[in-house]
Structure formats: structure tokens, C-alpha cells
């Protein structure tokens, strides 16, 4: 399938009967399953995944450094498991990041579309300054002018900078509804986003879906949804999927289990944007065993339909 095929009618939602079939597949059968629609790797735990993420990004940078070429990378805030191993790898091997250009995927906003306070737990810039850049030796680190942060004031400049040359790699995770960056399924009652709309989406400011707010509240605030940022600014899928290679990872277990099954087995569908990874020539999904598990597969006696 290619982007031209998206002009044809496509389902808006996953068929629950097919979803039940996918969720019944035991985790250990996923990596070699004959019906996979996208390359998939399964690792034991967060430590293994963090090491893999660090090695893959460092490998791209090292190859480009050898050829005296810049590396242009789209980088997420999370998963958390890879920052420490990446810094250790860069520092121990002396991997220069001086010719790396980092495009940060997204940022959370308050209800008026403004940036969050510096010490808010969902201020991605603060987090990345501490955990991605903070432990790398200064002489090896990415120059500040080559760090592209998303905000309402910078979105046009970031879009221009991304369009200037190809992106080498997009690194990311996914959300409970299969969103990459903050490319959530559109749930507005008066506006529908088709699969093609999602595929061609670009940098934008948006309200976060209610299910995203509830998921983040449960994950970070003891279900206090009142403290979850209600808006975000995000790179579109057109930017994220423009990279030569796309690697998405998750180690956050039950929050991501169903979206993983949909991404692996469903045809592209607007309800789960990460199904669009199938259109990319070099995309791969990686999950920990905990994330690959599913309660439906582990309770075969359940009657759900």
C-alpha cells in the first residue's frame, strides 16, 4: 500500500471481532506471526530496549560522522529507558553529536495553548534538557542552535528546517490509541479526519483527546485528570514518516498493549494512526514482553462477544 491508496474508502474504526482475534495471540507468538503487517521485534525488558534504542541512534550518527555528513533526527520525550545508556555510549565511545540536528517531536500546552511551567512534569523541554542532553560531555553534545523545540512561536521555523533536507531517523513511542508524537485519532463531533488526512498531517496545535487525558492522568497523577495538559503542539505524521528510517518502541505495558496488536495486524485505519507505519519502507516496531502481553490472550475462557 502507498499513500495514493489512502484516497480509496477505508474503515474509520477497527472491527471488534477482528480485534478480539488479534488480542488472543499469545505474546511469544507475535515476533514470527505470519500475519504481521510491519516488522516487529520483541525484547525482554526496559533495560534491553534502552540499550537497543541507544545503539541504533548512535549507529546512525557514527555512520554519518564517518562520511562527514550531518545527522537529522526526530526525537521523542520518552520512553525513558534509553537516555542513560545513550549518554554512556556517546561518552565512552566519544561519539560526536556536534553535527547532529535534533527535531523534538512535541510539547504539551495549557488550556490557552501556552507553554507549561518549567518544572511541570509534562514540560518536555525541561525533561529532555535534564535527561537527554544533561549527561553528555559538553564537547560532544548537540549545539544549542541545532536543537529544534516545538512551541506556538517556533512551529513555522521548525517546519521550514525539517523541509530543508531529508530526516535520517525518526525515533518514537506510541500512545494508547496508537498516536505517534501527538498525532491522535481525531475525535471531534463535527469534524472527521480521514486516514489520508492523518497521513498528510503537519505541525499543529490541538486539544488532546479525552482518552489521552484519562490515560496520562492514570499513568502520572493518580487519575487526577485536572492536572493533565489539555493541549499539545506536535509534528505531523508527514514529518515523522518522512525519515529514511522510523523506529518506534514501548516498554510501558498495559497502556500500549491493544494499540500494538492493531499496529501489527490491522490494515491502516484512522482510529489508530500508527497503522500508517505500514506505508513506510523502513519502519520497525519494538516492544518489551510486558507490552506484548495481553489480558485477553492470557484468559482464553473469557467470552467477550
Structural notes for this entry:
The chain is of the alpha/beta class. 30% of the residues lie in helices and 14% in strands. The chain has 10 helices and 10 strands. A 7-stranded parallel β-sheet has the order 1-10-9-6-2-3-5. Helix 3 (83-93) links the parallel strand 2 (71-75) and strand 3. The longest helix is centred in the first third of the chain and has 21 residues, at 46-66. The chain starts with 15 loop residues before the first helix and ends in a 13-residue tail after the last helix. The mean pLDDT is 95.
Question: Topology of this protein?
Answer:
Blueprint lengths: L15 H8 L16 E4 L2 H21 L4 E5 L7 H11 L6 E5 L1 E4 L14 H8 L15 E2 L6 H9 L5 E4 L22 H5 L4 E4 L2 H11 L10 E4 L2 H4 L4 E6 L6 H9 L17 E6 H4 L13
Question: TL;DR?
Answer:
It contains ten helices and ten strands. With 305 residues, the chain is an alpha/beta fold.
Q: Note the run of SSEs as H and E.
A: HEHEHEEHEHEHEHEHEHEH
How many strands, which pairing sense, and closed or not: the largest β-sheet?
7 strands, parallel
The proportion of residues forming helix, as a percent range, comes to 25-40%
Poorly predicted residue ranges: none
Q: Structural class of the secondary structure composition?
A: alpha/beta
> How far do the termini sit from each other?
31 Å
Beta-sheet strand percentage?
5-15%
Determine the mean pLDDT: 95
The value of Rg in angstroms is 19 Å
Amino acid at each position: 500500500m502507498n499513500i495514493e491508496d489512502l484516497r480509496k474508502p477505508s474503515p474509520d474504526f477497527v472491527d471488534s471481532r477482528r480485534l478480539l482475534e488479534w488480542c488472543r495471540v499469545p505474546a511469544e507468538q507475535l515476533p514470527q506471526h505470519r500475519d504481521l503487517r510491519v516488522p516487529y521485534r520483541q525484547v525482554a525488558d526496559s533495560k534491553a530496549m534502552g540499550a537497543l534504542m541507544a545503539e541504533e541512534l548512535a549507529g546512525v550518527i557514527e555512520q554519518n560522522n564517518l562520511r562527514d555528513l550531518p545527522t537529522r533526527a526526530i526525537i521523542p520525550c520518552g520512553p525513558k529507558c534509553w537516555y542513560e545508556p545513550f549518554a554512556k555510549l556517546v561518552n565512552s565511545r566519544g561519539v560526536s553529536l556536534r553535527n547532529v540536528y535534533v527535531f523534538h517531536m512535541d510539547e504539551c500546552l495549557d488550556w490557552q495553548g501556552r507553554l507549561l511551567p518549567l518544572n511541570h512534569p509534562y514540560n518536555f523541554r525541561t525533561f529532555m534538557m535534564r535527561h537527554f542532553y544533561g549527561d553528555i560531555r559538553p564537547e560532544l553534545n548537540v549545539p544549542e542552535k541545532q536543537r529544534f523545540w516545538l512551541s506556538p512561536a517556533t512551529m513555522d521555523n521548525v517546519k521550514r528546517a525539517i523541509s530543508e533536507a531529508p530526516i535520517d531517523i525518526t525515533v518514537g513511542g506510541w500512545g494508547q490509541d496508537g498516536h505517534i508524537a501527538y498525532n491522535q485519532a481525531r475525535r471531534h463531533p463535527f469534524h472527521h479526519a480521514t486516514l489520508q488526512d492523518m497521513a498528510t498531517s503537519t505541525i499543529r496545535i490541538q486539544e488532546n483527546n479525552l482518552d489521552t487525558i484519562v490515560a496520562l492522568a492514570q499513568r502520572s497523577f493518580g487519575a487526577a485528570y485536572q492536572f493533565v495538559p489539555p493541549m499539545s503542539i506536535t509534528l505531523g505524521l508527514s514529518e515523522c514518516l518522512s525519515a529514511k528510517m522510523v523506529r518506534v518502541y514501548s516498554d510501558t505495558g498495559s497502556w500500549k498493549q491493544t494499540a500494538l496488536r492493531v499496529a501489527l495486524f490491522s490494515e491502516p485505519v484512522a482510529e489508530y494512526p500508527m497503522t500508517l507505519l505500514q506505508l513506510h519502507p523502513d519502519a520497525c516496531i519494538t516492544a518489551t514482553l510486558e507490552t506484548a502481553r495481553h489480558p485477553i490472550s492470557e484468559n482464553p475462557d473469557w467470552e467477550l462477544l
